[in-house]
Amino acid sequence: GIIFFLVSLTHLYYSVFVIMFSIVFFAIYIFRQKKVSNKTFITNFSILLTIGLVSTSVLFFSNPTFSHGDEEWVFEAITAETTDGYARSTQEHFLFSTSLENLIVPTPDHTTQMFSDYLLFDSFYSFFGKSIQYLQIEQYAFLGYSVIFLSALAVIKYRQNHIWFWLLICGIFIVMSFGPELKILHEPTGIVMPDKLFYDAIPGWDELRAPARFIVMANLSLAMLASFAVYGLIKNKFSSFKQQLMLASIIGFVILFEFSMIPYPTDVEPIPDIYEEIKNDESKFAILPAPIGGTGDYMLASDPRILYHQIYHEKPIYGGHESRVSYETMSETRTYFLNMFHGLGSNQDIINQDLAIHGLSLFDYFNIKYVTLHKNSLTLHGLTLMKQTMSEILNENTPIHEDGNIAIYKIPKPDSLEPFLLLGSGWHTYVECEPNEEGINCYARVTMENSEILIINPTESTIDITLGIVLKSVLDEKTSTISFNNEKLDVLDVPITRTAMHVENLILVPGVNVITLHTDEVSAYQGSEHKRAFQEEIQIGIIVESLFIVK
């Protein structure tokens, strides 16, 4: 029980699973006992449940605030207030729920389907006249024929005391995995499931957007049922230890093979010889592998090839994200310039400056000595844009290595002494809209509470410049305080119409100079995902369309 609750700390879903399991367990105990008479059991169970609920209550706190530099945001907890303000639709629950046949049809990634050219998977849907289904990862809910057979054998023949409890747990969690409405062949049937009742009745239940994950507890139950059958077979049919060991080995092999997912076919990833030169370069620098992101959740994770290549060159890289990337981590590579090499990025941004003049200086600021374009991870359009960007920066210089898989550029030191712009912390992602799309934040970035503009002076002396900025407010006029190197310069009244302003007489000291735009209202992210957070944030931010140094 303690381990159960420790596991529940890792994710909200596991916490809900444990609570539901505990309720069913306690209800069955009372039903079988007819009355609560075992005081020791009740005391121990109550203590365990209390400790578990207290330890996992952090998952249910309302609006805990976290700090990150000059930014603050509010994480939307699972409370009644969040349901009133924002609720995930039942359609999302329907999408990420189990279809009935998912329980008995192996997925395309299972070894049996790999070696049979997806025979069972394709034949099943073809038999019912359905097109081949592309499964969500949550719908990988195959229970296994061997496990189902052993579980049925345990229920029919080896009726031990606890079999009905585990069968009930299995049934409850399978039904919960069906989501708000039963699906067969991924089509709705109109049969309402308990998830819909909980969605309507329990505040915050909408956040459990992937009911298919309830199948985890069903698998645990089937494992228990199968173990009863194996124990019964060993005890009643096989007397010698060797026979018992052989039976257990055969059953274990069959189950492991049935659930195995062999990454087949495989291929060898070629490693460029130039990596040996990069590896032996003892100077301190980083590599920019492109695209940053481009795969995984929200297309923010990096292609595994990039991390595999890092094993060989052994240098720090930009990006390299795996699994789900947090908003603040993502923002580090969605800033100006690096965003040009992002899988979701753009060559446009609010900063307008000539890359032919400042490109090498920008690379030098980020300490980037090599850029690697991974062709297999880029679309043809994306590869063409990045090559054009590199050609503009390097003045038509070709890569030091190029083959069918990768192009590698070596970045020389800059020779420009012109000041240049970058973005510091406190900016939302640049929004590039479709040609006919309308939006108040199109081709712009939205500020947070404190948004920094970096002006880099590469010389050893001071420089006097004027900064141009094109901006507007959202919904109503906002007040923004401008500071330069921690000294207050001016207070701007930002109208809701597009307005061009100049910040004059900025004396740049050598190195990094910081202009800070401070908005009176406190910025807040509401929601666990950055897309929802941005929708809330835009109501109080300032929209900046352009930044440039006035010549």
How many distinct helices? Answer: 18
Number of domains: 3
Order of neighbouring strands in the sheet with most strands: 9-11-16-13-14
Mean pLDDT: 83
Look at the helices and sheets and give the structural class.
alpha+beta
Uncertain stretches = 62-85, 522-539
Query: In one word, what is the shape?
Result: elongated
Compute the CA-based radius of gyration: 30 Å
Q: Between the first and last Cα atoms, what is the distance in angstroms? A: 70 Å
The major β-sheet equals: 5 strands, antiparallel
Q: Provide the helix percentage.
A: 25-40%
Number of strands: 17
Give the percentage of residues in beta strands.
Answer: 15-25%
Keywords: Membrane, Transmembrane, Transmembrane helix
Transmembrane segments: 12-31, 43-62, 137-156, 163-180, 214-233, 245-264
Protein name: Membrane protein 6-pyruvoyl-tetrahydropterin synthase-related domain-containing protein
Describe it for me?
The structure is a single chain. With 551 residues, the chain is α+β, with helices and mostly antiparallel strands. It has 3 domains: 89-259, no CATH class; 274-410, no CATH class; 420-550, Sandwich (Jelly Rolls). It has helices at residues 2-8, 12-33, 39-56, 80-85, 90-95, 111-115, 119-127, 145-156, 163-177, 194-201, 215-237, 241-259, 274-280, 304-313, 327-333, 355-365, 380-394, 530-537, and strands at residues 65-68, 71-74, 181-184, 187-192, 286-290, 368-374, 401-402, 406-410, 420-423, 445-446, 450-457, 463-473, 478-484, 487-494, 499-508, 511-519, 542-550. Helix 16 packs across helix 17. Residues 62-85 and 522-539 have low confidence and may be disordered.
